[in-house]
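haha ok so turns out i had the wrong file open the whole time. this is the CORRECT one, sorry everyone. sequence first:
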Amino acid sequence: MIQRIQSIYLLTVSILMLFMLVLPIAEIAVKNKDTVNKNETAGVKEVVIYKNYGAKRYSQEKSKLIISTFPVTILICLIGLISFINIFSYTSRYRQIRFCIFNILLLLGLAGLIYYYFTFIKKQILISDLTIEDHTFGISIIFPFISIILTFLAFRSIRRDELLVRSYERLRK
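then structure:
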C-alpha cells in the first residue's frame, strides 16, 4: 500500500537525491602559488566548487572544468529512481526488500565515490599551480548517509509487513 511509512522513507530518499543533484558537495578556496610565495595580500582568490557533475574552478569572470564526475551523477539518478520505483512496487514485498538492499549498497558506493573524487580533486589542485587555503563541505555531503538510514528503516518496515502477512496466512490454515 502506498500510504505505509516505508513509502514516506523511500520518497524522502528520492527527494534527498534530487537535492543532491542541485546542491554543491564541497567548496575549496585556492590561491596561486606565486602570490603565496611572495606574501602578497592582493592575490586573487579562486574557488573550486565540487558538484555532482564535476569540479569547476571559478576565477573572476571565467570558469574551468577541472574534472568531470559523471559516474556520481549517474549513481545519484539511479538511486533516486530505484527509491521512487520501489514505492509503487508494493504488490511484491520481496522485490521491495531486494531493491532496498541494492539501494543501500549503491548508497555506500556513492559515499565512497564522492570521497574518492574529493581526494582526487585535491590532488589535482596541488599538482597545478594552486595551493589549498580552505575547504568546506556542503549540506549534501550527509545526504547519502541519511538515505542509508532511511532505506534501512524502509527495509525493516517492509520486512515487518511481510512477517505480519505470513502470520495471518499461517492462522488461516
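The two ends are 24 Å apart (CA to CA).
again sry for the mixup
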